[in-house]
């Protein structure tokens, strides 16, 4: 049977996610935007929104993209799901007994429209006395969304009345991705294929298509429409779609005339149709984006406002505090480092849950004490229901983490371990949020490879670092090598390999306090000869914290090293810091900030996609918060591990920043 492949393009124009159909219109002689709008029963603004160049006039035979909306005839129009953005907002102070429904009736807007512009209402009820924004639309236009079917049988009956076609599953495809491609919900896709539980490449799925009576024409699949979000920039859009800023301007010349504005609909490359080999890399400003892909802002993509169910499994061991008549709880906590870390971590997590609520993400939380025991993990899971749990955050220790992941893998519940970098027995639901030391070293080596080709490379290494030394030597065959011995590196040996007219990059590979201390001291003395020296290491061990190694000396050498976290910027994070200090009376430490960052990342992923696993298919790139960033990749033995690493540098004023040597901009003024 031959099928007519009529594919509707889906443009997510609101939180409620209505499917929008489009067609091409070829302009005839004498037609104007006004006359075309009347022919299709849409406004001129609708045409301009998808054809920004039409504001400069239209020519015969040119093509316009026309949005086609299904309207419910004979029903009173209620504003709220129109493709148009509101032209203004009314401020409404909530009075006693008022509800969202009563306000929707009063202002003739839909409840969903009110929620869209007051996101806190997704997760909490109206509060007497609060002021909310009521959108006012220019056009009164109701698009009717088909109600969700209550049973699989009803869904199948609907599709039986329409044309059914089939889809062959490709490697790495997901139910969410296939459903989205054909304009279905996952529930509808599963109803059409009740015997398919797990997708396997090569199997055939039934996919339904409601054939529109209108002639909907397939748009060029290499492009899609994208609605500009608040505070988005041209640079950010170039990052998102893997093109240059000039490419976006060429596709949308209206930007140069009117500037980039919230709500503007742009023509952009379709990421699903782009060939990665042909992507034009955007201009990047920092090493982090250059080495580890594009940065994501999941707050711009929130669509799943179903309440989230989180479980925290933390090693409190409250039953072993061992209090006596002379010992208080405070003393006991101070004596137990793991307990202190657990409390700090959860304090940050609580802040993230509260902040997510302001974005419309409601969270149900349960906390279990693991008692640092795998058997306690098993007992907790056996005696409590985890059926609706979206993610587990917590088991800090290897044994408890492995026990939780193994027990919950049959239900495919993600388990995030936040602090350990150890290799763990893989379960496909295990997410290790801390990179390995090897991963950190490799990121540093990639950084050296990228930015060190025109530098005078000097490798200082002891016998224990021979593997790392050989790796670096393969990248830089002409590197000068100093084999440290007897716990000391002399100033003379370093001076012999440094070049006065070049940028000298010294890579120090040792965990010996003596070797590190003597190298750092000697290099600082050589700075007096106006040599340009930068110090690097692929592994900043605890030896660098020894009192014989001065941070001031490291700063003069612009010391570069890999790190899991950066220092938060007090200005950027001022709101978080103020709220945390008001809540807990102290400045958050690294464990509190990590608790915040990890929990916020999990909640945003759950709110931006169907579930955690779908989020990695939907969004490619790394996420970043106050001190931590996350880029999960599959592990060979199963599960996922965070591979996101910072390259940091210490400056002479002892400030810490993300390094960026892309423009060789580290030439020093040595007379300062």
Descriptors:
672 residues; alpha/beta; Membrane-bound Lytic Murein Transglycosylase D, Chain A; Rossmann fold; seven-stranded mixed sheet; LysM_dom_sf; LysM peptidoglycan-binding domain-containing protein
Fold and architecture overview:
The radius of gyration is 29 Å and the shape is globular. A hairpin with a 4-residue loop joins β20 and β21. It is of the alpha/beta class and about 675 residues long. The strands form eight sheets. It has a seven-stranded mixed sheet with strand order 11-10-12-13-14-23-22, sandwiched between helices. The protein has a four-stranded parallel sheet with strand order 16-15-17-18, sandwiched between helices. A three-stranded mixed sheet has the order 9-20-21, with helices on one face. Among the domains are: about 60 residues, Membrane-bound Lytic Murein Transglycosylase D, Chain A (Roll), CATH 3.10.350; about 200 residues, Rossmann fold (3-Layer(aba) Sandwich), CATH 3.40.50; about 140 residues, 3-Layer(aba) Sandwich (Rossmann fold), CATH 3.40.50. The N terminus and C terminus are likely disordered. It contains 23 helices and 25 strands.
């Amino acid at each position: 049977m031959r099928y007519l492949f009529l594919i509707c393009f889906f443009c997510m124009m609101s939180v409620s996610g209505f499917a929008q159909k489009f067609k091409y219109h070829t302009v005839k002689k004498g037609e104007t935007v006004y006359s075309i709008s009347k022919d299709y029963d849409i406004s001129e603004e609708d045409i301009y929104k998808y054809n920004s160049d039409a504001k400069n006039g239209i020519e015969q035979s040119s093509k316009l993209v026309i949005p086609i909306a299904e309207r419910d005839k004979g029903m009173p129009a209620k504003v709220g799901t129109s493709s148009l953005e509101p032209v203004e907002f009314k401020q409404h102070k909530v009075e006693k007994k008022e509800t969202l429904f009563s306000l929707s009736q009063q202002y003739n807007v839909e409840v969903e429209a009110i929620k869209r512009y007051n996101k806190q209402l997704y997760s909490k009820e109206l509060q007497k006395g609060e002021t909310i924004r009521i959108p006012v639309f220019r056009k009164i236009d109701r698009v009717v969304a088909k109600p969700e079917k209550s049973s699989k049988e009803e869904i199948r009956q609907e599709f039986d009345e329409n044309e059914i076609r089939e889809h062959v599953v490709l490697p790495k495809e997901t139910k969410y991705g296939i459903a989205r491609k054909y304009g279905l919900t996952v529930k509808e896709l599963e109803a059409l294929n009740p015997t398919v539980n797990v997708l396997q490449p090569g199997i055939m799925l039934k996919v339904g298509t409601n054939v529109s009576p209108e002639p909907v024409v397939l748009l060029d699949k290499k492009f899609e429409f994208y609605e500009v979000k608040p505070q988005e920039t041209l640079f950010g859009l170039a990052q998102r779609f893997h093109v240059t800023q000039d490419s976006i301007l060429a596709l949308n010349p209206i930007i140069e005339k009117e500037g980039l504005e919230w709500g503007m609909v742009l023509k952009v490359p379709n990421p699903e149709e782009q060939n990665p080999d042909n992507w034009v890399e955007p201009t990047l400003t920092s090493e982090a984006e250059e080495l580890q892909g594009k940065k994501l802002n999941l707050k711009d993509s929130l669509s799943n406002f179903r309440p989230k169910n989180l479980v925290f499994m933390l090693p409190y061991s409250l039953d072993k505090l061992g209090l006596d008549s002379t010992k208080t709880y405070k003393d006991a906590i101070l004596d137990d480092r793991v307990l202190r870390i657990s409390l700090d971590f959860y304090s940050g997590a609580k802040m993230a849950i509260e902040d997510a609520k302001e974005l419309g993400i409601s969270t149900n939380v349960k906390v279990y004490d693991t008692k640092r025991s795998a058997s306690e993990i098993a007992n907790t899971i056996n005696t409590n229901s985890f059926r609706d749990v979206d993610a587990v955050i917590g088991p800090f220790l290897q044994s408890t983490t492995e026990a939780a992941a193994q027990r919950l893998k049959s239900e495919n519940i993600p388990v995030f371990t936040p602090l350990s970098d150890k290799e763990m027995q893989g379960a496909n639901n295990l997410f290790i949020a801390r990179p390995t030391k090897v991963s950190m070293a490799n990121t540093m080596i990639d950084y050296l490879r990228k930015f060190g080709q025109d530098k005078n490379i000097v490798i200082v290494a002891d016998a224990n670092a021979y593997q790392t030394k050989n790796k670096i030597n393969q990248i830089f065959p002409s590197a000068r090598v100093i084999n440290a011995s007897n716990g000391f590196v002399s100033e003379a040996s370093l001076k012999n390999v440094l070049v006065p007219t070049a940028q000298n990059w010294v890579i120090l590979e040792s965990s010996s306090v003596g070797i590190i201390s003597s190298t750092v001291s000697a290099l600082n003395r050589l700075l007096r000869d106006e040599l340009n020296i930068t110090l690097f290491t692929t592994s900043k061990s605890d030896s660098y914290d020894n009192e014989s190694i001065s941070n001031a000396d490291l700063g003069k050498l612009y010391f570069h090293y890999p790190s899991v976290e950066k220092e938060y910027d007090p200005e950027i994070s001022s709101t978080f810091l103020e709220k945390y200090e008001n809540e807990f009376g102290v400045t958050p430490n690294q464990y509190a900030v990590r608790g915040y960052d990890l929990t916020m990342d999990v909640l945003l992923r759950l709110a931006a996609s169907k579930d955690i696993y779908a989020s990695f298919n939907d969004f490619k790139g790394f996420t970043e918060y106050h001190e931590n960033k996350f880029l999960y990749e599959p592990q060979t033995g199963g599960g996922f591990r965070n591979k996101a690493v910072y390259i940091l540098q210490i400056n002479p004023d002892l400030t810490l920043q993300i390094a960026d040597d892309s423009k060789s901009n580290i030439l020093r003024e040595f007379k300062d």
